[in-house]
Amino acid sequence: MKGESNHLLTTSKFLRFPEASVAVNLATALIPTNLFYNNGSIVMKTTVTPQRATKVRWKIFAIIFILVVINLIDRVSLSIGMPVIAEELSLSPVMQGIILSSFFWSYALLQIPGGWLTDKLGPHKMITGSTLFWGGFQALAAVATGGISLLLTRLALGAAESPLFPAAAKLNSIWLSFHERGRGAVITDCGGPLGAAVGGLIIAHMIAQLGSWRLVFAIAGGVTILLSWVAWRYLHDDPRKHPGVNTAELTHINAPSPQDDTVEETDPEGRVYRFGASGRLLTPILCGRACWAMIYFGLLTWGPNYLSHAKGLDLISIGNATFFIFMSAMAGSLSGGFLMDYFVKSGFNQQRILKFLLTFSGTCTLVAFLTLQSITSAMAAVVVLSIAAFFLMWGSLYWSIPPLLVTKSKVGIVGGVMNMAGSTGGICVPIIVGLLLQTTGNYDFVLYFFAFCAVGYTLGNVFISLKDKNRGVVCITVQ
After folding, report:
1. What does the pLDDT read at residue 104?
2. What pLDDT score does 35 carry?
3. Are 409 and 119 within 8 A, CB to CB?
4. Residue 258 pLDDT > 60, yes or no?
5. What digits encode the pLDDT tens for the residues 177-236?
6. Which residues contact 15 (CB under 8 A, 6 or more apart)?
7. Which residue, 385, 419, 453, 469, has fewest beta-carbon neighbours within 10 Å?
8. Which of 57-66, 200-209, 236-245, 274-283 has the highest mean pLDDT?
């Protein structure tokens, strides 16, 4: 080389050597592995690693899942403890049914206001406040002195819990991309059967060990109050403002979806419907949801009594049976959501898959309750109830409907309307079952009633439509 300045040109991208022989020798002997020789130049190879998306959205739904689990533990505690409570407070079957139903009076009444407030204030504030107050009222039930005071605490508990599921539906529309909403819906809802399963086991054993349902209620309420801080600290209304969300996850969440083109449905005179959709679209959804809820809440409220009086199980055995039944329900909830997302990703029409899974759920539930009529063994009854609960909880897919049916600004209130229909079923079923038991003295007509509800659930699913003559198909096939 005659001079380094004449023969070596350096830049941030490459090194150039005019003499080919020198360049080749250097390329083979001195060049690092991230450089390569090309047309008289040594070029630096640069690899750009794509940013991995964070998973904050699933952490948000993990918190919601935990809150729903605790929600159902608090709710089921009265059903599990009712045989003991009824004896201590001298409650008749009808009074037991009224108390078990009373939770849903305020819960149903405040669903629409709760959904409306969620749309206005955001799910973060609503979930935090809901958790704080329902924990307080759960603890307050520990000092009830009779049927009336216990009923009042249940009314307050229902009011406090009412915003939770509409707010969770709102988070589904905010935090998840459209092809993840089936999983988001069932992750939220499957916390219910898990809470019932774990709650039945924990509450039954705690009452047996501590010898006091009052102490158990106070402990459960205190744990819930502590969780309100977790909700306040970690939940966020806007992914863009969450410090843990990176650009890749935000891009994933905001990927184009069918809902982006959805416009608010209007009546023939051009006025926007109050709930974002017409009664024609909402009616089969609400009817199916109400019938589904009567079966689910029937199992939740009267299931322990059925196992005690019709099948002769003691308190510990009831707790164990409840655990298996509702663990099966949780597995069913998860499987339904993952099945739906799998078929949608595979290119199937989303509306048809949703209707098929919900209709199949209703049909299997109907068969299970008709089969239960002829079963005398307690173990076999628990197995059949577990199968019924598995397929029944495919009904968790109802929570994927609000983000698919209406614009994001209406998701909260539509979720509230839908949950109000379910809560109406929750109001009716404990009283109806109590009256049937007091009139007939056995569970035969109760099982027929649940089979009738399964028919209503199935028919409601058959007539569900996410189409509108002005908008076309809301739920489209994912390519």
Report:
1. 81
2. 55
3. yes
4. no
5. 777 777 777 788 778 888 878 887 888 889 888 888 999 999 999 999 999 999 998 888
6. 8, 9, 35, 41, 42
7. 469
8. 57-66
How far apart are the C-alpha atoms of 287 and 410, rounded to whole Å? 20
136-170 pLDDT, tens per residue? 999 999 998 888 999 999 999 999 988 888 888 88
What distance in Å separates the CA atoms of residue 196 and residue 153, rounded to the nearest whole number? 20
Question: Which candidate, 176, 328, 327, 350, places its Cα nearest to that of 250?
Answer: 176
Q: What is the pLDDT of residues 66-84, one digit of tens each?
A: 999 998 888 888 888 888 8
The answer to whether the beta carbons of residues 118 and 166 sit under 8 Å apart is yes
pLDDT tens string 287-323: 999 999 999 988 887 888 888 888 888 878 888 888 8
Give the pLDDT of residue 267: 44
For residue 256, the model assigns a pLDDT of 67
What pLDDT score was predicted for residue 152? 94
Amino acid at 254: N
Q: Nearest to residue 197, comparing CAs of 62, 96, 303?
A: 303
Distance CA 129, CA 259 (A): 29
Distance CA 82, CA 305 (A): 8
Of residues 186, 177, 61, 114, the one with CA closest to residue 414? 114
SS3 track for the chain: CCCHHHHCEECCCEEECCCHHHHHHHHHHCCCCCEEEECCEEEECCCCCCCCCCCHHHHHHHHHHHHHHHHHHHHHHHHHHHHHHHHHHCCCHHHHHHHHHHHHHHHHHCHHHHHHHHHHHCHHHHHHHHHHHHHHHHHHHHHCCCHHHHHHHHHHHHHHHCCHHHHHHHHHHHHCCHHHHHHHHHHHHCHHHHHHHHHHHHHHHHHHHHCCHHHHHHHHHHHHHHHHHHHHHHCCCCHHHCCCCCHHHHHHHCCCCHHHHCCCCECCCCCECCCCCCHHHHHHHHHHHHHHHHHHHHHHHHHHHHHHHHCCCCHHHHHHHHHHHHHHHHHHHHHHHHHHHHHHHCCCCHHHHHHHHHHHHHHHHHHHHHHHCCCCCHHHHHHHHHHHHHHHHHHHHHHHHHHHHCCHHHHHHHHHHHHHHHHHHHHHHHHHHHHHHHHHCCCHHHHHHHHHHHHHHHHHHHCCCCEECCCEECCCCCC
CA-to-CA separations, 467 to 113, 158, 282, in angstroms, rounded: 27, 34, 11
